[in-house]
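Morning!

This is the sequence you dropped in the shared folder:
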Amino acid sequence: MRPVVAIDRDLVQRKAFDARQSPRRREIHVFHSGDEDSLHRMLNAIQPRQLHPAAPTSGPAEVESLVLLQGTLGYVSFGQDGVPEDENFILLDRERGVYGCDIRPGVCHTIFALAPDTVIFEVKPGPYSPASDKDFAAWAPPEYTPEAAAFLADIEDGFRRVWGLPPRSWEPPATSNDGK
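The structure's back. Tokens below.
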């Protein structure tokens, strides 16, 4: 592992390309050396119509920071009952001067790309625990299901209304569970 890695345009473009080719419509580039590291740093390239599932509702792994490198990202937090908290919707858009967000412990949330080739730099505490990392809110639908696609459409439509963004025409997205 190299002691210093540049996060340059070439790397960001490669990850965006990889996300376009992936059945999951997203791609992670890891900078930390292993799951046991105390700080996890990564690029997360996300294409539209891909839901980052609602994060868990308790525990230290929920602390995370996101910095937008390119594209446009929607951030939505939820109450414990699964109702979106409109007042905490964040539109990450470099042209609007909103570059990132810092998410406190205990905040259930999701993110989604509003523009093709959206790439964020994400930081959260480790170590990685497969048992708890995918412990999503009970009311959140499982990834890659028709229910998840409908959930994303509802959340994004509400987000667009709150922010005054034009509606998106929703075609059924492909679902897959064979990616990572």
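Headline: The radius of gyration is 16 Å.

More detail when I'm at my desk.
O.
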